[in-house]
Amino acid sequence: xxxxxxxxxxxxxxxxxxxxxxxxxxxxxxxxxxxxxxxxxxxxxxxxxxxxxxxxxxxxxxxxxxxxxxxxxxxxxxxxxxxxxxxxxxxxxxxxxxxxxx
Length: 102
What we know:
Layout: H1 3-14, E1 19-20, H2 21-31, H3 39-51, E2 55-58, E3 63-66, H4 68-74
Antiparallel strand pairs: 1-3, 2-3
């Protein structure tokens, strides 16, 4: 788990609606101007978080929201080492071949 992953999860926890990756990038920049990340990097981290079921998508526009697993992680109930090693392929996105979230 990287710092940016936790920032994304914390941001989604505060939002009452799903956000597109571009909106997540903008909001992260507003919250921490010193931490400017390229959109491609945000997209890659969202793919990892989605793979590990810490975020969920909604709609065809790939808007993201915090999942129950993500909330459990932020609340200290779920540890990063407890994350699933593999999941089913996500519709519309290729399955990522990773063993951990770093």
